[in-house]
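Input record (one chain):
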Amino acid sequence: MNGTHRGLNRLLLALLGLILIAAGAITAAAGATPSFAADWSSNGATAWAWTLAQIRSVPIGSFDVSWWTIAALALLVVAVVLLLCWIFSQGGGRSGRIGSRDSSAGSAADGSGNAAGSTTIEASLATRAIRDALEENDQVLSANVSAWKVKQADGLRIAIQARKGSSPRQVTDAAEETVRGLDELLGIQVPVLVRINSGLRSRFTGAERVH
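The corresponding structure, as predicted from the sequence alone:
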């Protein structure tokens, strides 16, 4: 529940996996088949010689530098910039609010005279309300609440640490009741991801519920 580009990450991981599989297969084939290793070395030397010839064929004036070298350096710089952009795009997505409500101006006919405006709901309000409500439950050891912005929508992530031996069903019911109370309090329905952990293996196991 963050701003990570999961599709791009999966694509990059898939490409990296294919490259590693190909490298492993070539290494295994070279170690198992001497003729393949000899052909690979011969083809590699031929390809390197062809590359050097292409580089030397387009020099920059009288300098001993090729346009291909400049192009390769420019491509490397672009790759580094894209890699840095990808790295800094990971995670993130935290938000300081969980929504807003717009109110229209009151008319003279109804006598309200209310001015139009918008009300922003701070995440700290929901965080304190949910945490206080859940920690009053004997089966809940602790609760951590954070607000996130996912696809231009504000939502909450509730991580509940249940006491050892507690009933997952009852903890889930308590979480859902707390979320319903929050919806009634705010007057809007906030997207919520609930994660419940229990026991010593909570770092590796858990249950998730989306509201």
